[in-house]
């Protein structure tokens, strides 16, 4: 039985004041929720603040990105060990916005995945196809390439302590959600790819859905066999909406 995981990706949003209000609301809503792992991924500059605000609550902290380097002359970068010092347990790698705007390659993303694991943190590998790729019938080949990038570099063992988030690019921030059948099809495909290498890794992998997940569609999505939670963008910025989603995962 895979434990549901719901992560809020705040992207580049928040102020010290709005963060305090949001975390206060989330702590109240999450108190007593013990069957779902709940986390927030604030911008790096706010991680220390969120660590303090979250205190010993059941809100975990994730980072939105990490350096492939352990330290040194890499201006603007932040290492996995630095994130760990501030209570981070999950790190998003390969989000489509970074693939698009920072031109992150599968090779670089695999290195970030490994750097995260080497620090004892859990990488959340984000994958998904664009609308153009879907319409061209390339869903399977895109997902296969993105999943295999880590296996080719580090072997299937690398997926033993990791999470995968399937986020169809066309559903991110658009209000258009993949139907539960479309999402399930992609999640089942991801699990099948893993199972071809290692059945145990495949069975244990938490595969999250991301892309316009809202309180109104979360229950139906997360009821699907291979959907184990959500990576939530916009709706994670409103405590009541995010709570509606993690409560739907129970
Ligand atoms: O990381 C989260 C995803 O990009 C989903 O964002 P969204 O819920 O705003 O569509």
TrEMBL record:
Pathway: Carbohydrate biosynthesis; gluconeogenesis; Carbohydrate metabolism; erythritol degradation; Carbohydrate degradation; glycolysis; D-glyceraldehyde 3-phosphate from glycerone phosphate: step 1/1
Catalytic reaction annotation: D-glyceraldehyde 3-phosphate = dihydroxyacetone phosphate
GO molecular function: triose-phosphate isomerase activity
Highest taxon above the source species: Bacteria
CDD domains: TIM
Record localization: Cytoplasm
Thylakoid is among the record's keywords: no
GO biological process assignments: gluconeogenesis; glyceraldehyde-3-phosphate biosynthetic process; glycerol catabolic process; glycolytic process
InterPro entries, A to Z: Aldolase_TIM, TIM_sf, TrioseP_Isoase_bac/euk, Triosephosphate_isomerase, Triosephosphate_isomerase_AS
Keyword Cytoplasm in record: yes
Primary location group: cytoplasm
Assigned EC number: 5.3.1.1
A GO CC annotation given for this chain: cytosol
Record's keyword terms, sorted: Cytoplasm, Gluconeogenesis, Glycolysis, Isomerase
Chain residues that bind substrate: 9-11, 173, 212, 233-234
Complex formation: Homodimer.
Family: Belongs to the triosephosphate isomerase family.
Task of the protein: Involved in the gluconeogenesis. Catalyzes stereospecifically the conversion of dihydroxyacetone phosphate (DHAP) to D-glyceraldehyde-3-phosphate (G3P).
Record-given protein name: Triosephosphate isomerase
Organism: Corallincola holothuriorum
């Amino acid at each position: 039985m895979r434990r549901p995981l719901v992560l809020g990706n705040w992207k580049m949003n928040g102020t010290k004041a709005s963060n305090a209000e949001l975390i206060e609301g989330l702590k109240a809503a999450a108190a007593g929720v013990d069957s779902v792992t709940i986390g927030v991924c604030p911008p790096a500059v706010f991680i220390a603040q969120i660590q303090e605000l979250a205190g010993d609550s059941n809100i975990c902290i994730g980072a939105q990105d990490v350096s492939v380097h352990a330290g040194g002359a890499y201006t603007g970068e932040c290492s996995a060990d630095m994130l760990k010092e501030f209570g981070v347990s999950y790190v998003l790698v390969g989000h489509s916005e970074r693939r698009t705007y920072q031109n992150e390659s599968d090779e670089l993303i695999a290195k970030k995945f490994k750097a995260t694991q080497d620090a004892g943190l859990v990488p959340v590998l984000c994958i998904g196809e664009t609308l153009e790729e879907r319409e061209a019938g390339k869903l399977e080949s895109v997902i296969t390439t993105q999943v295999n990038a880590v296996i080719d570099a580090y072997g299937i063992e690398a997926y033993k302590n990791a999470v995968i988030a399937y986020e169809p690019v066309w559903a991110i921030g658009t209000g258009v959600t993949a139907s539960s059948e479309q999402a399930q099809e992609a999640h089942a495909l991801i699990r099948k790819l893993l199972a071809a290498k290692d059945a145990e890794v495949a069975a244990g992998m938490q595969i999250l859905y991301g892309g316009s997940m809202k309180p109104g569609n979360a229950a139906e999505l997360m009821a699907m066999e291979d959907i184990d939670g959500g990576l939530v963008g916009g709706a994670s910025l409103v405590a009541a909406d995010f709570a509606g989603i993690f409560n739907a995962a129970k």
